[in-house]
Amino acid sequence: MSECVLCNEVITNPVCTDCVENEIAAWLYEVRPKLVEELRKKSEEINLDYGETRCILCNNHISICTFCYTNHVFEWLKIRVPELIREFRTFFDFNYFFPT
Ligand SMILES: [Zn+2]
Ligand SMILES: [Zn+2]
User: Fold this and answer.
1) Is 60 a domain residue?
2) pLDDT tens, residue by residue, 1-51
3) Which ligand approaches the C-alpha of residue 66 most closely?
4) What is the DSSP letter of 51?
5) 88 within a domain of the structure (yes/no)
6) Span from the CA of 39 to the centroid of ligand 1 (angstroms)
7) Residues 17, 71: contact at Cβ < 8 Å?
8) What's the total number of domains in the chain?
9) Residue 59 predicted with pLDDT over 70
């Protein structure tokens, strides 16, 4: 187990940012297809692929936890499409990550 390079917490949910990104992209294709490309760019900002932990889905190296990644996307969505925030939080069931 390695630690997230951003929050220094041990990564307990070993899913890489690429895999989470694909989930979010699939959702955006449904609701706001135009934003998918922007999501890709946003993701690259914090997409680092080193670290000892490997993704349970695609075997990529993980250096950022799903919390930091979804929070990064959340901050962006909050400004771009505030009307989708509620759905984003429901859909990804990450409510416990965010202050209410
Ligand atoms: Zn983190
Ligand atoms: Zn993965």
Assistant:
1) yes
2) 689 999 999 998 899 999 999 999 999 999 999 999 999 999 998 877 777
3) 1
4) S
5) yes
6) 19
7) no
8) 1
9) yes
